[in-house]
Amino acid sequence: MRVIVDISHPSQVHFFKNLILKFRKNKDKVLITARGKDVTLDLLKNLNFKHICLSHQTGGVFSMARELILRYVLMWIIVKRFKPDILIAETGVTIGLIGLLLRIPRIVEEDTEHAKLQRMIGLPFVSIIMTGLGYLGNHGRRERKFKGVWVQSYLNPEYFTPDASVLTDAGIDSSEPFIVLRMVSWSAAHDTGLHGYTEKQYLEIINKLSKYGRIIISSEGALPQSMAQYRNPVSPEKVHHLLAMALLYIGEGATMAAEAAVLGTPAIFCNPLPLGYLKAMEKDYQLVYNCENFDAGFEIAEKLLNIDNLKELWQQRRKKLLDESEDINEFMFRTVKEETTN
Fold first, then answer.
1. What are the tens digits of pLDDT across the range 169-221?
2. Cα distance between residue 62 and residue 54, in whole Å
3. Is residue 152 a part of any domain in this protein?
4. The domain containing residue 174 runs over which residues?
5. Do β-strands 86-90 and 128-131 pair in parallel, antiparallel, or remain unpaired?
6. What gap in Å lies between CA 164 and CA 290, rounded to an integer?
7. What's the CA gap between 83 and 204, in Å, rounded?
8. Predicted confidence (pLDDT) at residue 274 exceeds the cutoff of 70
9. H-helix or E-strand containing 117?
10. For the chain, N or C: smaller number of CB within 10 Å?
11. Are 76 and 98 in contact (CB under 8 A)?
12. Is 296 within 8 Å of 287 (Cβ atoms)?
């Protein structure tokens, strides 16, 4: 079988990496196309995944439109040359229309219900839409539901084991409490009209949280000098070791909130955008708290950080999630095989 996997975000590198390895173990031919956004290309390089970069992230509506046209042109050329049996991506912005025109099956994973523009461009043209826990949409006969949260495809115990030496090498004492704070750039298409805090507001939250432990900031953009001392010293490909051993995660990033929770770390998502999987992780498993901003998040954090054996409680809740979930990589591999043999 010949497969193209299109990756446009750092989180998708993690999400698809074990599926790609499973394809290779099965002697399937895999070609990876990518978009230069944040650390996406660095993550692929660190995994020794050869890839073709179709474009780099740009700002502004017109620049995004030009980038999309470029991606369409390059993907068309690559598909014609590689002759894949199936195209795989998240949401399917690049592969949907190309696959439809060339009559190649398209399978996507979808979890961002609020990303209206991407969904409008990609989802109408795909064959199969895979969704997980708490998904708020409905795609009828095209939808395939898996049990669990998408980040479990790379963070379940069979795929990931936390390593304290990673933190030690980065100068972090894992025996001392620390809190991971995530700041996003608010530059994605689905972030239009939204913005983060001012530098002063962020510093106020950091000062309030500091009494509970060391603050480590993971940021999509460059940090101002006033926050430089809090910069995360752990490399992006090893950040999950940091999340697993943190006392608490609080931030604007949805992916990291889910990752922390799946690893058994209390997570507070400070963002007005609604995400079904995070809402379900709060409602069904009490692993995540959803709120609109850092001020509301701090109020939740203060209550949590005064609970004895907080991490032990979250590990119990995590076990319930793991027990009720399935191997998502097996699910995706099976779905692909079924689609290519029909």
1. 999 999 999 999 999 863 444 333 434 688 899 999 999 999 999 999 999 88
2. 17
3. no
4. 164-323
5. unpaired
6. 28
7. 55
8. yes
9. helix 116-122
10. C
11. yes
12. no
